[in-house]
Design brief:
This protein is mainly beta. It is 0% helix and 43% strand. The chain is globular.
């Protein structure tokens, strides 16, 4: 793609507003980049998670929106992990999932939710979201999750 005003070494969406990246994950020879995104305007609005993949972190393929707002609210920042040990229980012996952990934001109230995917493109929101309700904290958002190898646990 050759566009005069598009950066050559920085990721940008095809259209709309973009904010912070969320959950850069490397799985099966691809980097997956999720990012806060309002696909219908160039200004802040109902947050979604955009999704793109790359083999080299320079050339990107844009994928469909990974997470859309729902009855629990907009999709704010969070993390994504490849669940290679199936600690979530969403997978089985043959399939492993990618799990997103994100903030739902509605009416200045924030809570934490999860979604997963076996093909790393089509995400299913967990039916018992939110998984962590807001204990009354302002700015209760942006979960950062990773695998702690030494303790063999997800954190």
């Amino acid at each position: 793609m050759k566009e005069t005003y598009r950066p050559r070494l920085h990721f940008t969406p095809l259209k709309g507003w973009m904010n912070d990246p969320n959950g850069l994950v490397y799985v099966d020879e691809f980097y997956h980049l999720f990012y806060q995104h309002h696909p219908f305007s160039t200004i802040w609005g109902p947050m979604h998670w955009g999704h793109a993949i790359s083999r080299d972190l320079i050339h990107w393929t844009h994928l469909p929106i990974a997470l859309e707002p729902d009855e629990l609210g907009f999709i704010f920042s969070g993390s994504a992990v490849y669940d290679r040990n199936n600690t979530s229980g969403f997978g089985d012996d043959r399939k492993r999932s990618m799990v997103t952990i994100f903030t739902h934001h509605s009416n200045m109230e924030e809570c934490q939710s999860i979604a997963w995917s076996f093909d790393y493109t089509d995400f299913t929101k967990y039916e018992h979201n939110p998984v962590i309700k807001n204990p009354g904290i302002k700015d209760f958002r942006d979960p950062k999750v990773f695998w702690y190898e030494e303790g063999d646990i997800g954190v």
